[in-house]
Amino acid sequence: MLGSQSPPSLPPTETPDPRDAVAAADGRDGAGMAELVRRIIAADQQAIESLYAIFSRGIRFYLCRQLGAQELEDKLHDTFLVVVQALQRGELRDPSKLMAFVRTIVRRQVAGYIDATVRTRRDVADLELGSRVADGRSNPEQNLLTSEKAQIMRDVLRELSARDREILIRFYLHEESQAEICRAMGLTDTQFRLLKSRAKARFGEMGKRKLNRHADKAMRKAAGS
Amino acid sequence: MNQESNDASPGQPVIEKGPCPSDETIEKFLIGKLDAADTERFEQHFLACPTCVERLEAQESFLIHFKAVAPEFEVRRSPSPVRQSFWSRAFGFIWGRPALVFGATLALALAVFVPTRRSAPEVAVDLVLRRGLPADDAATVPAGNRLNLTLDVSELPLEQSYAVEFISADGSTLASGRVNPQDGKLHWKTGLTGRSGLYWVRVYRNENSKPGELLREFALRVR
User: Fold this and answer.
1) Do A164 and A191 meet the contact criterion of CB atoms below 8 Å apart?
2) Of B48, B140, B171, the CB nearest to A54
3) Contact between B58 and A200 using a beta-carbon 8 Å cutoff
4) pTM
5) What is the distance between the alpha carbons of residues B47 and B55, in angstroms, rounded to a whole number?
6) Scanning every residue of chain B, which has its alpha carbon at the shortest distance from the alpha carbon of A190?
7) For B53-82, what is the mean pLDDT?
8) Is residue A48 a contact partner of residue A85, using CB atoms and an 8 Å limit?
9) Residue B207: which residues within 8 A CB-CB, separation 6 or more?
10) What ipTM is given for this predicted complex?
11) CATH fold group of domain A18-124
């Protein structure tokens, strides 16, 4: 906390609609980055909500990737609070560097969380053999989603020819370089890239179809009851 | 897909994010193949670009599930014909000469029971810390390869060298060493040949040539 200043209050947990949060401010002073930073330093709540609307998705992704899904919302809020407080302390000299500034703070927060986890883990390491990495699948719904996606991936791979499968396995599992694979299998770079993007598109498409089927089923069930 | 991504929702302040990167760049970021400057630029971009976060999530999901499922489709490679040919020839030569049978039997016994350095192919593995994801999402390598690890230690306090250990699921230390960092990474040739299982790679502060404080731990699955 900063001296006698009370910490800025955070927006509610669900992502606020940026149009509601910022429309009035934008009408008043045509916000750009410098204006946004100026208003945050002045503890303008709408500006803080705009900042949250802009960065929360990216920060959430980064934190989840580095730290896992446990207590993600708390970590997101804490990290965002640190960003706002740092801005209000005037630590950003050049507002055009706002994104680099946010990145630096987020990385520092992640390093801090990892250090704390390692310290805790070291203390109980001898007792927790075999369970050293926290399971990110924290609920049955996520477990189901993961196993459904695994099945979708099996279906996608079965649709491919053995040769196309081998190309993808060499690249993603064996981590051979694109150049090595193209040379060994007689492919051009374009063919290689096309194969990858086709497989990814197919995976995404089948995933969406499955999701829509679930949504339809849920709607029919709700309508029936 | 390269596109200008400064279009904001109505009423939202304009943030100069720069153009969105291509799918290739996103993939390279996810598999750790972007250089430090591009990684920095891309991280700054996606922190403020929900479109790119969606693209990242989609690609990451593809990679995670591919690595989990693809081993089921792997075709085992047949043994090297050169090695079979050598042993076949050696056996044929000795069998026709009774005086050499004893010597050949002794040589065969030594070959079977004395550990020899196998010339297994080498595989380079990049280990990235990804806490909280299921152990199934550990970096995965095929069995039978010699393991050369690259550990990302860019966020650790800089030391002249770090102590490293390679540990099995039951806690036994299979290999250890001391490695000097280069550009925020530790390149460690473990000398081990991968056998199926889940393993842990630990990085310690190096204190008087012995492992000190535990700094990082990575999961590695060999299938």
Assistant:
1) no
2) B48
3) yes
4) 0.58
5) 13
6) B24
7) 81
8) no
9) B213
10) 0.74
11) Rna Polymerase Sigma Factor; Chain: A (1.10.1740)
